[in-house]
């Protein structure tokens, strides 16, 4: 584990000493160390007559304090450092002169960037993105309400959707925040008193209650007494489902079932939910194995919305589709279901969500509250009232002392909602708002809903303040950029959990202890060991590796009939569990490039050709010596999101590797260069097409970097199969090739073209060779991931002064075998993370 760090004041003092020790170099030094070199080697392409890439250097101001100008000088420096400027075909400047110019630019750019950070901080105020808003509201209220879908989509900046400069705010946002808050508050209140619900459906009853179910009987399913045996994925109009839930809540499901078939193996099935409306298809919630043998009772708990049912279904379509004999003779895999039973809700009453915002306030039917407030006749609520009647006249909170309860509840809610201590003035402001509505004869529930909506759509809730411990001067300049303990708790919690700080973090913040290095290290360990850390996997790894795009394309069923829903479910899980295994055990982050293990289940093992793996559960498996897997680039998830569903492109995959793994993204293509369209007839190879494309001078320099990693991955098809030839839809001389896992075949197209040469002139024949070349520069792999973690954790892109911190972290990682968990600790203890 990382050793204790310097305290933040010492870090700042050291930073200040660095800054004072590196004053701006006189202009004469620029002329001798930089201008002379530029005039001799650069201005022919970036001068008065020619401005390649729109850059002119002979008139570029020597003003490193200007954001626009310094950005241009950063590009110049980076091109010099990479050897791209001057171009390799031109005369190279003497190495001492080149090094002197780079040293000058680094010093000036670092000095200017650090000075700006010390005056203003590096992270502007940042609002919660949609994911963080939903998580925070649900954790605050104790609800499980989908809210993100109600909000405008967040834009992505520097690879992530939590970067402050990309998170705008409009009047539409505020309107939708009000609507989302109303939905969440309403969901926190139970509609009716506890009314136990229980329903059991036999297989026979499921066929009778499912519309048009009999169309599949005798073809993909059959009855055996009261039991239902299904052999293939059932259509949405014939579902093996429970009765629908009468109210939202958590339910217990009992399934009495067993796998059948000659192979005597368990069968993987999907646990799904579907709404009664039938407007949307079933949603996959989990995958479980049904054991072979005698029927067993399997219990499962699940959160259901009102009028939502639990569904059991296959995720694959077995070969029974081509079985021409009577179904009674079929011996392939299937599942026998004796019955499905639903019971619940099993939540406490009133639920924790109610106590979070209305603790101590009794619940009454809305009609009763209205009658009592207006002096009308109070209706008697019958004990046998059904759920539809309760939804027409739901329970609402009703206080005997509304102003006292309002003040108590609002004052208790504010510090949790604002994630810090709240002044008496602010507390009184919100209390008076609610009291004002009570004075206007609002019901207690409506007045409190108004108050809670104000809080949940206020800047103090919506924004992470990144507040410094010492207030800024009247000029706006900061006396210190050290974050206060509450802002540090926020930054840490939204980094690792994508939600609000819990009571332990806030307690440490109140005591002023969170910023101590040892305390921070202990909290990072606690948080990474929490189930909430799954949000780090979902939101950091999901964006870093593009796992969020797993559903963006649908593989062509004619070419890829070996693709199914079970494989789709397994794809991102492999990568997420791989990420968590590396993090949990502090394995080297170089495993993301290459590894001799992976996390697979039976379906993925079939795809990868790994023997001995059974069942839907994932296991850490050592890869066979001859395996063509290892590292995330060979994961089916990554191979799918870097293809279009039908074809692969070395350009798309090469760009992905440069951005995600190497950390050197290519420049955007010129606007007047047409994209390469795949030749579906196979008349020209992708290498031939790219060779012609690279003849364009504007394209050649970038494609020299993009194409090699793209060709390294060309042996993998859009669903992750290893391939030696392309699949095509038209007849070829090579004929038909049968596919694994399916009775279908495809036409064999041209052989896959392997191998390429790196920009440094190093040849490789396949991905295994290419990964070895990547790992020759381990620091660059670590540097790339360090930058991404710093961006994601702070909500701001890398600035020039941050480069020093990145290099310090990489040096420490190198001494610790590049441990990924160590990297997370180093990021949290860094100057970049601890300061505004």
UniProtKB/TrEMBL annotation:
The keyword Transferase does not apply. This is Cytochrome c. InterPro entries: Cyt_c-like_dom_sf, Cyt_c_Planctomycete-type, DUF1585, DUF1587, DUF1588, DUF1592, DUF1595. Residues 406-465 form the DUF1595 domain. Residues 1-21 form the signal peptide. It comes from the Bacteria. GO terms for molecular function: electron transfer activity; heme binding. Transmembrane segments: none annotated. Residues 126-189 form the DUF1587 domain. Residues 761-833 form the DUF1585 domain. SUPFAM superfamilies: Cytochrome c (SSF46626). Residues 42-88 form the Cytochrome C Planctomycete-type domain. Residues 629-724 form the DUF1588 domain. Residues 483-610 form the DUF1592 domain. Keywords: Signal.
